[in-house]
Amino acid sequence: MTLNPKQLDMTRHELQQNFELSGLTKKQVATDLNISEIKLDHLFNLNQQSLDDPWILRNYLIEKVQEAGKEPVPFSAMGGDWHRHWFLNSEAIDARQMTPGDN
User: What's this model's pTM, rounded to 2 decimal places?
Assistant: First the structure.
């Protein structure tokens, strides 16, 4: 699935808003997801090669915002159930298995 420029901008903004609502630092998020802060920056900028990794970050942020007792910002382009998208590895997303490396 390819997002158009407007969808990419909206998704970047939605990721950032949910990150801010979570109250976490980038270091905490990277540690929780067992990735480097470089990879996390790639995810926030949607420069990640894997299509699954941004969904893992999305789900993680939604969970953390809810745990903080707040309402997550809805995702416009990354909405719905990732299990219904044939191009995503839903098992990896469910298990929060990020791809190796920083890309």
Answer: 0.94
